[in-house]
């Protein structure tokens, strides 16, 4: 029944992506609703005075070192969560061709967006 | 001679529409699409911020369009759905033991909702102050 | 007195004569205390003796009577007609397994997976009989007890879309069983089993759908076992980066 030779096991690199997925998911669960509420609904509708979200205020914040880090994390980390899910959902709905490329595109997208925001913040300093 | 002829059933591609539990799972996974979009809107905002005051104000103005409000409401609903599902599954990934007893699921979930409320109120406060 | 009747659809498949499965309807006298398994026994005794299904204990402990009841994986002996009456009940063999005949499925792959996870205690070092038994405190036992309650019914595999999509995936019950041994204080085989866990087909085939834990008749919570193993596998990955084998 059971084989006598020990079979070989291949370690997956998924822990890297799962770690980022988990961190992003945590952040998304706690902060994304209130962020959407503020930037997407309350400020545009004028329920919160847009003076609270003025250019000087935000620019001032984003050009401090801690502000830059916060902005980067808030904008980029959720992408590592969502693109991980999108990558796996593609498999779920039966799109099985070119899984390697799907992986490169999904995580590459999250990576590119993170670098994009990072460079912008750096250049604003 | 064997009469065995095991029959393999094919999984339909729309398997996730056939059962409410799977559909909810797909909505949970699908919430990522709008959350991705929201992150991109913010990334766009950072770009406009780096281009100066006029550009940034343009971005703020674009957010006032009814379409934008609609997208954000939708994103908010899905983000909340993500939050609810995330919290409800959280106890399964927690292995905390107190005096030989596993911390109860209810306690862990309630802790998450408590922190969520605090974080939300805190964010609303700092933005309005 | 006219008896109350309930309609039961059964998916039939007779390999020696059928190309593919078909549905056959039976009418069975209804009583509120009748289980699905008893209804099948009624059918076999009174209506059609050629129908095949598995059972043994009739009390949710042998794990042999798993089937799809209205699309949900259930134990036939633990599901009752009263929860469906007066609606029709439809019975199909457990999803995600090949059909052997009627409600009987081929479970070989499931059994193979259970065997593969080394489901036995691998002591750190063998003790001589004269040194006495391996001891364990109730607290140490509590860490794995839940994961040891599995009756190998396979309902969780029938509930798992990832197993359905790719049956290389080790799957819920086998991973829960693996966690049961890894978490046992008497066991020293964790390093061997982590190799299984760390693979793509190990815990990383799971996307946390969570339905396995909902359908499990024994509250094993395989989804939790897998999540905890994911955490362990991530730690193992970090350690592996600094000290490659
Ligand atoms: S984990 Fe639960 S559902 Fe899965 S085989 Fe064991 S008892 Fe059955
Ligand atoms: S007959 Fe044994 S579990 Fe149902």
Structure, described:
The complex is a heterotrimer of chains A (125), B (129) and C (245). Chain A is 73% helix and 0% strand. Chain A is an all-alpha fold and 125 residues long. In chain A, 36% of the residues are buried. The model of chain A has no long low-confidence stretch (mean pLDDT 92). Chain B has a domain at 17-76: Fumarate reductase/succinate dehydrogenase, transmembrane subunit (3 helical TM bundles of succinate and fumarate reductases), CATH 1.20.1300. Chain B is built from 4 helices and 2 strands; from the N terminus they run H-H-H-E-E-H. A two-stranded antiparallel ribbon of chain B has the order 1-2. In chain B, a hairpin with a 2-residue loop joins strand 1 and strand 2 (101-102). Chain B is flat. With 245 residues, chain C is α+β, with helices and mostly antiparallel strands. Chain C folds into 2 domains: 5-105, Roll (Ubiquitin-like (UB roll)); 108-242, Fumarate Reductase Iron-sulfur Protein, Chain B, domain 2 (Orthogonal Bundle). In chain C, the strands form 2 sheets. A 5-stranded mixed β-sheet of chain C has the order 2-1-5-3-4. In chain C, helix 6 packs across helix 9 (222-242). The radius of gyration of chain C is 21 Å and the shape is elongated. The B-C interface holds B 3-9, 11, 15-16, 18-19, 21-22, 25, 29, 89, 91-93, 95, 97, 100-102 and C 13, 15-16, 20-21, 71, 95-96, 98-100, 106, 138-139, 142-143, 161, 164-165, 207-211, 213-214, 221, 223-224, 227-228, 230-231. The structure holds iron/sulfur cluster and FE2/S2 (inorganic) cluster.
């Amino acid at each position: 029944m059971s084989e006598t030779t020990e079979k070989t096991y291949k370690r997956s690199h998924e822990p890297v992506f799962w770690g980022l997925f988990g961190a992003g998911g945590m952040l998304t669960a706690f902060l994304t609703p209130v962020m959407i509420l503020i930037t997407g609904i309350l400020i545009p509708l004028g329920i919160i005075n847009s003076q609270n979200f003025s250019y000087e205020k935000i620019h001032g914040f984003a050009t401090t070192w801690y502000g830059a880090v916060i902005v980067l994390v808030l904008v980029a980390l959720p992408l590592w969560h969502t693109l991980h899910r999108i990558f796996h959902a593609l498999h779920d709905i039966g799109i099985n061709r070119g899984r390697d490329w799907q992986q490169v595109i999904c995580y590459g997208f999250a990576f590119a967006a993170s670098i994009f925001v990072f460079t912008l913040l750096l250049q604003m300093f | 001679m064997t009469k065995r002829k095991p029959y393999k059933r094919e999984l339909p591609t729309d398997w996730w529409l056939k059962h409410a539990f799977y559909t909810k799972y797909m909505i949970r996974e699908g919430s990522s699409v709008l959350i991705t979009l929201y992150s991109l809107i913010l990334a766009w905002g950072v770009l406009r911020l780096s281009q100066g005051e006029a550009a940034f104000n343009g971005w703020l103005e674009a957010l006032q369009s009814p379409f934008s409000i609609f997208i954000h409401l939708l994103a908010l609903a899905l983000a909340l759905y993500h939050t609810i599902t995330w919290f409800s599954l959280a106890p399964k990934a927690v292995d905390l033991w107190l005096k030989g007893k596993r911390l109860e699921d209810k306690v862990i979930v309630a802790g998450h909702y408590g922190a969520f409320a605090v974080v939300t109120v805190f964010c609303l406060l700092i933005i309005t102050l | 007195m006219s008896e109350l009747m309930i309609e039961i659809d059964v998916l039939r498949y007779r390999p020696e004569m059928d190309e593919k499965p078909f549905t056959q309807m039976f009418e069975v006298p209804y009583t509120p205390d009748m289980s699905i398994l008893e209804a099948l026994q009624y059918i076999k005794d009174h209506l059609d003796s050629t129908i095949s299904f598995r059972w043994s204990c009739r009390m949710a402990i042998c794990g042999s009577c798993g089937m799809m009841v209205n699309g949900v994986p259930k134990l036939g002996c633990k599901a009752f007609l009263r929860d469906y009456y007066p609606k029709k009940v439809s019975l199909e063999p457990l999803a995600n397994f090949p059909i052997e005949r009627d409600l009987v499925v081929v479970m070989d792959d499931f059994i193979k997976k259970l065997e593969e996870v080394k489901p036995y205690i691998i002591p750190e070092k063998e003790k001589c009989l004269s040194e006495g038994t391996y001891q364990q405190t109730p607290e140490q036992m509590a860490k794995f007890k839940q994961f040891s309650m599995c009756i190998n019914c396979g309902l969780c595999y029938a509930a798992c879309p990832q197993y359905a999509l790719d049956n290389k995936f080790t799957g819920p019950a086998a991973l829960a069983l693996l966690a049961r041994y890894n978490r046992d204080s008497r066991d020293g085989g964790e390093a061997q089993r982590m190799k299984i866990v760390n693979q793509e087909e190990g815990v990383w085939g799971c996307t946390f759908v969570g339905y396995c834990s909902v359908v499990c008749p024994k509250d094993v919570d395989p989804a939790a076992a897998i999540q905890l193993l994911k955490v362990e596998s991530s730690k193992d990955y970090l350690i592996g980066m600094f000290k490659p084998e």
